[in-house]
UniProtKB/TrEMBL annotation:
It comes from Thiorhodococcus minor. The lineage of its organism: Bacteria, Pseudomonadati, Pseudomonadota, Gammaproteobacteria, Chromatiales. Signal peptide: none annotated. This is Chemotaxis protein CheW. Residues 20-169 form the CheW-like domain. GO terms for biological process: chemotaxis; signal transduction. Pfam families: CheW. It comes from the Bacteria. One of its GO terms (cellular component) is cytosol. InterPro entries: CheW (IPR039315), CheW-like_dom_sf (IPR036061), CheW-lke_dom (IPR002545).
Length: 186
């Protein structure tokens, strides 16, 4: 298997002749997940994150990416696994997701996903993909694109557009802001 950075930079095709697709694997809260490599724009080290007041816990903050402000979502918190602890292996996976606002223009929103560590690129054949189970997972089933059969069992393939739904994240942020503005009822 080629080095991750080399494969991303080389622009190798993300789908093989046998209908296999490539997936970027990473760890969050000691669990292994993957996303379609075609969703990945860039992987960067965690730098200076600026916290934004009145945002939910899963919005870790924003970064300055070459002059562009990019929101970073703590994937552990978003998946209900708790807020991630930053380590030397923590990374931000940059992806573009659709939103209702920008979809009309054909544009997408750049977001960062904070993960505990990036692992490798796996190739998984289409016949090794199983539908998401209706129960038995600790994360929302609409976040799961499929279950990928790999040597050591299954890996959860996340649906980036659901996990990082810009519209849902905005609604959650508005609810968090509203909750802090009004006093708790007794």
């Amino acid at each position: 298997m080629k080095d991750l950075t080399t494969r991303l930079a080389s622009g190798e095709p993300a789908s093989g002749d046998d209908g296999a697709s490539q997936y970027l694997t990473f760890r969050v809260a000691d669990e292994r997940y993957a996303i379609d490599i075609l969703d990945v724009k860039e992987i960067i080290e965690v730098g200076r994150l600026t916290r934004v007041p009145m945002t939910p816990d899963h919005i870790r903050g924003v970064i300055n990416l070459r002059g562009r402000v990019v929101a970073v979502v703590d994937l552990g918190a978003r998946l209900g696994k708790g807020v991630s602890t930053l380590t030397k292996r923590s990374s931000i996976v940059l992806v573009e997701v659709a939103s209702n606002e920008v979809e009309a223009n054909g544009e997408q929103q750049l977001l960062g996903m904070l993960v505990d560590e990036v692992n490798e690129i796996l190739e998984i054949a289409a016949d090794h993909l199983q539908p998401a189970p209706d129960f038995g997972t600790e994360i929302r089933t609409d976040f799961i694109h499929a279950m990928g059969e790999v040597d050591e069992g299954f890996i959860i393939l996340l649906d980036v557009n659901h996990v990082l739904s810009v519209d849902e994240l905005a609604r959650l942020g508005e609810m968090a802001a509203a909750a802090t503005e009004r006093p708790a009822e007794v």
